[in-house]
Every structure is written in C-alpha cells, then in structure tokens.
Design brief:
Blueprint lengths: L3 E10 L2 E11 L4 E6 L5 H9 L6 E6 L5 E4 L11 H7 L4 H17 L3 H25 L1 H10 L16 H15 L3 E5 L7 H12 L4 E5 L3 H7 L2 E6 L2 E6 L2 H36 L6 H13 L25 E12 L2 E12 L3 E5 L6 H9 L6 E6 L5 E4 L13 H5 L8 H10 L16 H14 L4 E5 L7 H12 L4 E5 L3 H7 L2 E6 L2 E6 L2 H24 L14 H47 L8 H38 L2
Parallel strand pairs: 3-7, 3-8, 5-6, 6-7, 12-16, 12-17, 14-15, 15-16
Antiparallel strand pairs: 1-2, 1-4, 8-9, 10-11, 10-13, 17-18
C-alpha cells in the first residue's frame, strides 16, 4: 500500500522548469534521501509533499488518515507558552480534547437533572480515557525526554518560546515533530542547528523509527544511516535507487558504465552494418542482403547516456609550510560575566594535524577558535603562533565584513588575480553561485549566501593554518563533498568545528573534546571518539552494577580513566561482538543487493525488447518474454521486501549493541 502517490507533477519558476510530469510513490516504510544539485528542486518537492506549496498541475494523493510532519529550513513560528507546553501543543487534537473536557466538566457542575448528570459523567470518563491515551503517547514526560535529547536543560523547559534564539527554536520545532510521531516525516536539513552530542542522540532516535521519512541533508554519514532509498533529481529527471547514499553513488556509476558499454556495442554494430551497406548496396547480387541490413540498422536502439553533473575540483594555493609547532595555549582562561568557559587551558597544535573540536552547545568551541584567531582576547594565559604560520579563519559572522557594493565576482576575483575568470567562476559554482548569480551585489544576498562567499574567499587566500567554524552549514551535499576533497588535499594544519558527521569523519585525525573548561584529545575521527565514549559509559555501568552487588549502595559510578591496554581490549571485544551480530546480516544484505542489481539490469533488457512493436507480430515469441518479465517484476518486489526486512534486522542489531 502506498502512503503517497504523486502523479504528473509540474512546477516551474518563470522559464525554469523543475518538474515536468513527474510521478512517484512513497510506501509506509520508505526512508528516502532526496538528493540533487543545488536548484534542482529538492526543497520545492518537499514543500509540495507537505502541502506548503501547490504544483502548477498534477496531483498528490495521501493514504486515508495519513499524518505528515514537515520541518523546513526556515521556521515560520512556534506556539506561544513555555518550551515544553509549546512542544506538547503541536500534537493534533490535544487542545480540542482539553477544551471538550473543560466544557463537559463545567456543564456537569451546573447540571441538576440526574439522567443528564449520568450521561455527562460517562462522556467525562470517555474524555479522560482519551486524555490518558494522549499522556501515554504524547505526554509531558515524552516531550521532556525528547527536548533533553535535543540539548535542552531542565531550566530551559519552562522558558517562553519567544526567548529562544533561531537555532533553539528549530530544535523545539523538531522536538514537536518527533513527539507527534507522524506517518511521514519531511525533514529539510534537520541537523543544521545540532551539535555533536545532540546529533548523536537524534541519529539514534531516528534509526529506531519505522515510519516513513523524506530527508534532505548535506551530512553524508547521517544520510547513509537513515535512508533505505535515494530519490535523485537528475538532469534526465527523477530517479529512484535502492539503498543509502553510498549505494546510490555506486549504482549510478555502474549504470553509467553499463550504458557506455552498451552504447559502444551498438555503435560497433552500427558501423559494421553501415560498412556492409556501403560496400555491397550497389551490387545486384548483394542488394537483398544490403536491404535487410538497412532495416536492421533502422531498428538498432538509441542508447542515451546519463548526463553527468559538472563537478569542481579545487586545490588550495601553495604557501610555504609552517614550523612544527603551529599554535600553543598555556594556562588560558576566559569567562563571560560569571560563566567560566576556560580555566588553565593548555593545548598545542602541530603541523599537519586535522583536529575536530566537539562538545555540547555552550562548551566553548567557537570561543576557542576566536581566541586562536585573535578575534577574542583571553582573560589570562598565553596564546602563541609558531614560526611562519599564515592563518585563515572562517566564521559565519565574517559574512558581515563583505563589501555590499561589490558583486560576488568582484568580491572574490582579486584573491585569484593570477587565475582566469573561468576558474573563479568554477570555484563560485562549487559554492552554489552559477551563471548570472555571480553578478549579484553582496548587498542583496541572504545571510547564508554571504556566508558562502566568505568561505569561498577563505579557500582562495593562501594559508597554512585554517580555522573553520561550521563551514558546511549553508552548503548542499555536492558542495560539502567538494570541500571535503579540497581539505583532504590541504597541506597545512586544520582546526575546525562541525556538527556534520560525514565531514568530521572524512577529515579529522584527532578530536578535541571541550568539557569543563578543558580540552581532552582523542586520536582518530568522530566515529572512533564516539565509540571510545560508549566504551567508557559501558564500563561505568558495569562498575556501578558490580558495586551494587557488593552491597555498596552509596557508591557513585564514574567514568574512571581507562588504561591504554584496557581501552584496546574493550574496543577489540566490542568489535568482535559487532562483527558476530552484524556480520551475517550484512552478508545477507550484500547478496540481496547483488541479486537486485543483476535482476534490474535483466529487466531493463527485457523492457527494451518489449518496447519493440514488431515483437507482437509473433505472439508465440512475445508471450514467453512477457511471462519472464512479469515473473522478474514479482521477484524484484520480493527482493525489495527482503532487503527492507534485512535492513530492519541490521538496525535492531546495531541498537542492541548501543
């Protein structure tokens, strides 16, 4: 059964056509990643599905009673009241139910007729049963649990929503959607305002859901972990692929190679037939054979290759390398009023390190970068840069330093004076400014657009020490991948803050955890850091359980320091457990995916044959092909179902391992 059926959707903005007779379906367990180049209509399609925008023509049919929740990139508003009350009030029907309850109670208090009192009493009992159901599924304790998972503290729950900043308002809106638990969640860049701890919680919460999802995200890892299908807005139209984002990239590349091979085969056959016709067409003895080959030539299929999106490969300007010690902090302290952010902070960066700074919101990540960049003075201690260090610093507020009178191209071109304008246009294209966009004045750009211009300027400016604060916030997936590729080839030192798990995992060689005014370094990327934190948590729980068995109810479990030997042993044991539990399921999924890929290719060949009108002149030849095509279709449906079941088993296994 389909949850949504979209038929013949058309949408255009002026001369730009986004959708032209586009059709697709969404099932009740489809978890779809919506991908495509900037400007292809991802957010517009999301709005159409949410009913926030109407197509020029076409229809969208929803299953009866289907509930849809939508989180746009730009939030329109939040209900008034405290944070927790606002989140609870987003659940449809609650306010009406409470109003009916109050009305019935008032009527019962005034009613004097005994029969009427009995009737109102029964109605009141039924309403209380309904309200109990709401409390069980959508009550305050659920709302508070979700809000805390998204980073709200106990003291924040009673704050009025009007006092929240933009990022926190988005978190509250997201909490409302998670509490509603709709049949379909439409999420447009939901991780933009989350830090690493809340992103980790949100990722786990979403993976436990079996409801339908349509997701736009520039975080490759998050996308991979959440979806089982990719809908891609390609140049040739909307395409659907089984699997996650990595599966889509592999299948797309394989599809391209298969089409190229088929095109080469067809062209070789075309050349062979044409050669025979040219050679023997005029000879009477061969005229009949030449005529036959002319017909064969006419019937040869036209193989249309997939159009590839243009990609930009960026290299940083060359600059003399720095000394071994790039930056040193000794005894650094910083406070804002009574809030102590750092006290006696010691840290050192060495040449070539790529360090991701993580920590809860308000821990001091941005403050650390500002202090190193010299944009914020420390209250105490010493901050020094090493020999020959040339720093580049990106923060979103740098967007306000751009010259509003310049066009985008005029603002950026001077930084690459030795490069042709086509190169600068290519770089700007990677940051989502294409064609005439580069001639727009800075003054008319949105905050996000100005932030992208500032980021492009940073990458064109020579440096050997880069500080970057949330550089992917205003990028799409393709632009984020371009930035990752560029930074992987960067020869300098990198210190960055990012909530984007894929970005951090692709770049970090070290993680700095900002906690209690100190920096705790961990070797490895974000996944390795999170794995280590999980082992510490499990060890603390085990010690707490052991202490309880020994009759020490007053002891408090704490994550005591773990020796390197113990850490490696714990990690090896956990890896072994994970391989034992997940390994067989992953093998099963790989086998199913291999069978799906082969059968899909076979079905395409059958469909090409069935599209030939001459086939049906000989029904005895057509019928077996029709039967095998029908059987292949049924087998594919069964394989898709088996793949979904195996993915659910894998998610459950992963959840059981923590």
């Amino acid at each position: 059964m389909s949850l949504i059926i979209a038929q013949d959707l058309c949408l255009a903005y002026g001369k730009k056509v986004l959708f032209d007779d586009t059709s697709f379906t969404l099932g009740p367990r489809d978890r779809v990643g919506l991908v495509g180049a900037n400007g292809t209509g991802k957010s517009s399609l999301m709005k159409l599905l949410a009913g926030a925008q109407h197509a020029d023509s076409g229809t969208i049919i929803y299953a009866r009673g289907a509930r849809v929740g939508y989180l746009p990139q730009e939030l329109a508003g939040l209900p008034e009241g405290s944070v927790v009350e606002a989140v609870m009030s987003t659940v449809p029907g609650r306010d009406a139910l409470e109003a009916r309850l109050n009305k019935t109670e008032a009527e019962l208090a005034q009613e004097t007729d005994e029969a009427a009192q009995l009737e109102l009493s029964q109605e009141l009992a039924d309403l209380h049963t309904e309200l109990d159901h709401f409390e069980d599924h959508y009550g305050r304790h659920h709302a508070e649990r979700i809000l805390k998972g998204l980073g709200f503290r106990d003291a924040d729950l009673a704050k009025p929503t009007s006092a929240l900043s933009g990022g926190w308002r988005m978190r509250a809106a997201l909490a409302g959607l998670l509490l509603q638990d709709p049949d379909l969640l439409l999420l447009d860049e939901p991780t933009n305002h989350l830090d690493v701890p809340t992103l980790t919680w949100f990722d786990g919460f979403m993976r436990r859901s079996n409801k339908a999802l349509v997701l736009i995200s520039h975080d490759r890892d998050f996308l991979n972990r959440q979806v089982n299908r990719i809908v891609s807005l390609e140049i040739e139209g909307l395409r659907s692929y089984v699997g996650n984002y990595n599966d889509y990239k592999r299948q797309r590349a394989e599809e391209m190679e298969q089409l190229k091979a088929r095109a080469a085969k067809v062209e070789a056959r075309r050349a062979e037939l044409q050669s025979f016709i040219d050679r023997f067409g005029a000879k009477a003895t061969k005229a009949r054979q030449a005529k036959s080959r002319e017909k064969m030539l006419e019937r040869l299929e036209e193989v249309h290759l997939l159009e590839e999106r243009s990609t930009v490969h960026f290299r940083f300007p060359e600059v003399e390398r720095s000394g071994r010690d790039v930056a040193t902090l000794k005894g650094v302290s910083k406070r804002y009023g009574t809030q102590v952010v750092y006290s006696g902070l010691d840290a050192r960066l060495e040449r070539g390190q790529r360090i991701a700074v993580v920590g809860a919101n308000g821990a001091g990540k941005t403050t650390l970068l500002k202090i190193l960049a010299g944009e914020l003075a420390a209250d105490g201690g010493e901050v020094s840069l090493g020999h020959n260090v040339v720093m580049g610093y990106y923060a979103q507020h740098h967007a306000d330093t751009l010259d509003k009178r310049n066009s985008i191209l005029e603002e950026v071109q001077p930084l690459a004076a030795d490069k042709p304008q086509s190169y600068v246009r290519g770089v700007l294209g990677a940051f989502l400014f294409s064609g005439d966009d580069v001639d727009k004045p800075i003054g008319v750009l949105s905050g996000g657009e100005r932030a992208r211009v500032a980021l492009a300027k940073l990458l064109l400016r020579p440096s050997n020490f880069l500080l970057m604060d949330e550089p992917t916030n205003h990028l799409d997936l393709d632009s984020t991948e371009m930035l990752i590729e560029a930074l992987q080839g960067y020869g300098g030192t990198l210190l960055f803050v990012s909530h984007n798990r894929g970005f951090v995992n692709s770049l970090a060689t070290t993680v700095w955890d900002v906690v209690d005014g100190k920096v705790v370094p961990y070797a490895g990327n974000l996944d390795e850091y999170l794995y280590h934190q999980e082992q510490l948590r499990l060890k603390a729980e085990a010690e707490a359980a052991g202490a309880g068995e020994k009759g020490k109810p007053g002891d408090k479990a704490s994550a005591a320091p773990v020796s390197e030997k113990d850490r490696k042993r714990l990690e090896a044991e956990a890896r072994q457990r994970r391989n034992t539990v997940e390994g067989p399921i992953k093998k099963e999924i790989a086998k199913i995916e291999e069978r799906i890929a082969k059968l899909e290719a076979t079905q395409k060949e059958r469909e090409a044959q069935l599209a030939d009108p001459e086939l049906y002149n000989d029904f005895a030849r057509a019928k077996p092909l029709m039967d095998t095509h029908r059987a292949g279709k049924e087998e594919l449906e069964a394989l898709y179902a088996a793949w979904e079941t195996a993915q659910e088993k894998l998610a459950e296994a992963a959840a059981s391992l923590g």
